[in-house]
Amino acid sequence: MVVNGLALTMLVMGLTLTLDDFKRVLQDRRRVLAGAILQYTIMPMLGFVLGGVLGLEPWLAAGLILVSCCPGGTASNVVTFIAGADLPLSVAMTTASTLSATIMTPLLTQGLAGTIVPVDALALFRDIVNIVILPVLGGAALNSTFPSAVAKISVVAPAIAVLVVALICASTIAKSASAVLTAGPTLLVAIALLHVGGFSLGYLVSKYLLRFDEKACRTNSIEVGMQNSTLGAVLALAHLHPLAAVPCAISACMHSILGSALAGLWRYKDSRDTHHRRAAPPPYA
Known about the structure:
The chain is mainly α. It has helices at 2-15, 19-27, 29-53, 58-68, 75-83, 87-112, 121-145, 147-153, 157-175, 177-209, 214-225, 229-239, 242-279. The protein is globular.
């Protein structure tokens, strides 16, 4: 049931895409590739280090690593829009990281979490293809082939997807409620630091190392800091342990709250800068 729920969510994501979005990934290769590299280096590194430094028990540490190795989530596109960042770039980056997750998520999870608990990379690969890649591609194909029909479905589809994600996360946490209470503040701190670190390093590396423009820096920050946490929860339940799914479920809530707050701050900064420019007296001739 949980697996089917995530597959439905990914199908909905696919319905928001067209085949042209996949072409855009190839057209903007430099920035999309840079975002993908940041996605699959910064977050896995943070997840591995935080799990060890904060002394999380093995399955919780493995879950933290797993969610850090997941691709960007669809919520990042909404947050990018709110932040006034580069929405087409965000969609391209989400698409690229989702497609590359078939290889990167299993390999990184096995390489990092495999040092703590047993990880079957091949099983992870099969599930990612079945519940992520195929539904996304199927949804995009339907949107490109039957745009009018999909437009009618799209009115209610996002609400259904949000409800399914909420049910998956609630079910995951409920199954391990005692473990969540035991880990308590330490687990919450680890997850908060994971996402804050992703947002911060994604922006700083883009700005001062890659020299991207402000909109691209914001987009990279959001794409790096927000994960497809629901995918992590489903994979953890199927291939690791119920405890490993708990960090993923909490992450789904945490990154949405932090990402929305960050977008709001950027939007406020933009409005304040615009107001100051309008209020400033004209320069002397």
